[in-house]
What we know:
heterodimer, A: 7-stranded mixed beta sheet, globular, B: 21% strand
Amino acid sequence: MAVAPLPPVAQPISRVDGKLKVTGTARYAAEFTLPNLVYGQLIQSTIANGRVVSIDSQLAKWAPGVIGILTRENAPAFKPYPDQQTKKGGPGESRVPLQDDEVHWVGQHLGVIIADTFENAQQAASLVRVQYAATSPLLAMDSPAAEKESWLPEYVFARDKLQNSRGDVESALASAPTRIDATYTTPIENHNPIETYSTLAVWETPDRLLIHEATRGIKQLQKIVANAFSLPVGNVRIISPFVGGAFGSKGFQWSHTLLTAAAARLVNRPVKLTFTRPQMFDSAGQRAHTSQAVSLAANGDAKLVALRHSTTTHCSPVSEYLESCGLSSRMLYSCANVQVSHRLVRLNLTTPCPMRAPGEAPGVFALECAMDELAYKLSIDPVELRLRNYAETDENEKRPWTSKHLRECYERGAKIFGWAKRNPQPNATRANDGTRVGWGMATAVYPANQQTAAAKATLTSNGEIVIRSATHEIGTGTYTTMSQLAASALGLPIETIRFELGDSDFPEAPNNGGSWQTASVGPAVLGVCGELKKQMFDAASKVLGGAPPDQMELIKGFVRVKNEPSRSVSLRELRARAGLPWIEAEFKADPNKEEREKFSFYSFGAIFVEVRVDDFGQTRVNRIASVYDAGRILNPKLAQSQIMSGNLFGIGMALMEETIPDATIGRNVNANLAEYHLPVCADVPAFEIDFINEPDPHLPDLGARGIGEIGIVGAPAAVANAIFHATGKRVRDLPITPDKLI
Amino acid sequence: MNPFAYSRASDPAQAISGVAGQQDAKFLGGGTNLIDLMKMGVETPAQLIDINRLPLTKIEELPGGKGVRVGALVRNSDMAEHPLITSRYPLLSQAVLAGASPQLRNLATTGGNLLQRTRCYYFYDPAFPACNKRKPGSGCGAIDGFNRIHAILGQSDQCIATHPSDMCVAMAALDAVVRVQGPKGEREIAFADFHRLPGNTPDQDTNLAHDELITAVDLPMMPFAKRSHYLKVRDRASYAFALVSVAAILDLDGQNIRSARIALGGVAHKPWRALKAEKAVAGKTAGEQVFQSAAEAELSDAKGYKYNSFKIELAKRAIVRALNTVATIA
């Protein structure tokens, strides 16, 4: 079903839930409450490796307000997570909590204190004394011991192959006239949404569990919890109408949800467990540290003849998820000889998991800095180097793109930015205040994924159309975009549509991730609206004396026969007058497998950055011009916001973000927002963001590809390249803080 | 957070008698540092005496043109915008506005700013076993740990934490005087004597007695203080502690330097009065070379660690830039 982009699609509509959010009436997981609610607080390990010998909770037991203490001694026997979730590089922990005495990192959950208030629970948790049999932990990737603990895994996400090669890289590198070899490193980074993780669990009956959770994976969590407690899936209900940011956190299997549910069963009352900010750094995922060796070689025409990208990164003792840095290097440029490899080291650190553009964000940083270095070595403009190596097809998969307008992204971005005026000489441009001025650019890329999703549409007795899908609003604007799509498909004003999400009782939708939410749920919403319309016309046909359904039209509040305005029935009365128990439709949208095998689906972009670097090594990003080819843009206002936040995320990655575990103890030293630096308002540059806005012809329903992650991809490299241009100093180790520049 | 009793004092004497003889009682001002430390379990007072209702909220001129008195409960935001401060001590206004965030400045008090604890990852998290400041005799986690934000001047083998205040760096340069009241009456403490270097007792950040209450900070008349500059180097544009900061004042006669007042932040356990640099510029003609040798002199004893050695060069550059900036103020 091809839908023309009728209004309100493509309109810059403000968020339909904006008022709820700014007035504080949008309800987030930690804001739900229930009668008899009590509070949980985690007991966490303080060593990074070893065993728990004993947990002394006597003091905690008699602390004010304490109602119960959950430890391994009284924990339920959780069923292990199913293999398909945890093997072959599946993200999340592979170990259910409290079933053994092993300790694998600092902050691992050893139990839960349950008390009448959050504060009492926290105070009691601080009184618990744990005896350990400690073993020395492995905390760094570059030690010989770590080398022994490393291997070359085959898959990540049970989907993407991690070791790839084509052609003969070694000979091509050896014989090329120009080559660069450099190693780039990125640190551990943590998701820091304003809303921390929060779970409220209540056993409605001995075998029915209701959970309010900050999650972007309600259907996945429902299955995880049901499996762990050996319950039928339908006996677990997850509710999550608003999520205060996720960025890769709040999906997959983490122990706090199971622990909260077990705590609720233990005390037979609803229990709420909300993470503190420090717990965001050690309890449920982070981006791993990466070290990436990149070699590029070019011939006399500045054409790439060899590309080698070798990544070393780490997982925890209870996961095999890997930051897949090299995947984009397989397809971003035309090159006959390519080798991509990934090595994984087990360290005693918090379990890594996806964080916004997992793999691509650090991986494209390395590749796009290396391209910049190569451009200097070849004395050629960085944009020109990319154009000379433009990939007309996906040389990795050996198939065409669905559509690719990257060339226009470079051209338009360069024009907006004024790139043509760039003096190629590094360390040569000064601003009026004497600071060094640098211009840098990079390519952005992100796969255009789609997953199966379903939706249900109902005509209510007050004439409203309610559409439901078990998807999520993580701050990206799902309520708005889906309402726009429905309004567009039905030809009705957006005010007459109510889109509901965040309830596992609703029809299937995937985790929000992989930038696939709009491309997945959107077709389901369009499909279900088509079905509902058909049913409404059939019903109207009965009411209106057999008028043919294909002669009907929907207008605000009515179905009527085209060109016969007097023959109409109101949506309020339609169901009753047609004598129907309900008017509703369900629709499931699957990705087109054939098309997915024939074509490569990607979004592309180009980002241009101006930085100012002063004598103290302080870098401020002054302005950014970025242009993206992400198919059709459904809501330019929301799309601009998404890209702006992604670019800003990239500034944070380039200049500030770094989680620092103490090198001997393994405990994070800066697990707070004062010392884990994210960009603040004063760090926000001037933005000019533009979209090619050409519908993807191989996504016929929507024409839209995702934009959740591509904004961060390339941004750190563009900043680093601009810093080189400003100072003549090539910093290959993120974040680029003042100490690395003076 | 440890449970604690809370009471509110209505006059200074009552507040002082509330903590006198009670080692685990503390005054509560804006709470922007104390409450954080209580949440982390670093501070565990059994009793908080709220002093927010005490009449110490004025900024007023001292009689006889002796300067300006800032009440201990003046909020940082109010001080930064007060005409007596912006007109006579612009350095102080700049320093305060360079610190924290607007929300914090709206709550934080003058006295509380003086009393914020030194900043160190290993001090702020009781789960780290070694910290001589938190647990005397337990060792220092930072010396061999991650010490990027730590001290390069005046530290000891017991402690290398830094004082995080911006306001105090300006006050140190302005020769401020801290007025305190105790059970036996009032006394004045010169700013340079208020904060301590760690030595063998890093658990004591200041020379204020437990039962003494800061009532005000006096800023002496310093007409040449209009020619001043506060320079702060940090990891992001706002809401970040100083890697290095410089408060600089020059008393100039044309381009001849009669005297200078220079203080550094982010480099020591206390706001660091740069006396060597001051001496090096006094009587000289303002200029890059003079400033450079002053910076070299000040940092000659500096000692860096694995992650913070960059601060030595950074401090030198910052001193030179700050002095250059002041010298060119019309």
